[in-house]
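Please, structure for the following, as C-alpha cells.
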Amino acid sequence: MRGYRGVKYTLFIFCYFFWVVSAILTAVGIYAKIAREKDVVDTLTVDPALLLIVVGSVMFLITFLGCFGALRNTICLLKMFVGLLVAILLLQIAAAFVGYFFTDTVMERTERLMMKAIERYREDQDLENAIDFIQKKFQCCGVESYKNWSRNAYFECSDTNPSLEACGVPFSCCIRLQNQTVLNTMCGYGMQQLEEKLARQDIFTIGCLDKIVWWAKHNLLLVAGLTAGLLLLEVTLVNVWLQKTL
C-alpha cells in the first residue's frame, strides 16, 4: 500500500510541476500576442509568442491527463498519458535520426528559416528580441556572416536605401567592453562596409548558424538524454502504478 501511494504521489508531483510550467508558458505567449502590435507575422516558425502558446498548450493537455489520472486513479487517462509520452519519445528518436542522416537538408532549411527571420527583423518585436538575445548569447552576427544583414530592408547596403541603419548591423552584434556602462545602440552603423578584419574589432563577424551548430553538437546529446530519461521515468512510474491497480 505504501509503495502504491509513493508511486501515485511521485507521478502526481512530476505532472503537477510540468503542468504549472506549461500554464506559465501559455500565459506568457498569450500576453505577448495581445500586447504587441496587430500587423505582425503570424507563422509558427517565426513567431516566438505563437510557438510558446502551442508548446504550452500541448504540455498543458498532456500533463493534465497525468495529474488528473494520478489523482483520481483513472486508468483510461493514465493509458492516454503513457501513449502520448511514448509518442513524444519516438518523435525525439525520429528527429535525431533525421538530423543525423539528413544533415545537409536540415542545415539548408535551418539557414532558410534564419534568413527569413532576419528579413522580418523590426517587423515583430518578439522576433527582434529573440534575434538580439541569440546574437548576444552566442556572440555572433547574421546567419553565415555579419553581411547577411543586407537582406533586411533597414540594413540593406545600397545607395538607394534611405534608412539611417543602411549598411549597418543591429547593436546586439557589437562587442561590449567590460567597463562599458552605457549601451551604444548605434555601434553597428556602417559595419557592412568594412572588411571582416576591421569589422571584427567592433562587432562579432561569425554567423549564428555555425555557433548554434557548435553549441548543439556539444550540448544536444545531454539535453536529449535528460529529456528522454525524464520521459522514460514517467512512463515507468505509470506502468508500475497500473500493474499495482489492475
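Residues 208-245 form the longest helix (38 residues). Residues 28 and 35 are 10 Å apart (CA to CA).
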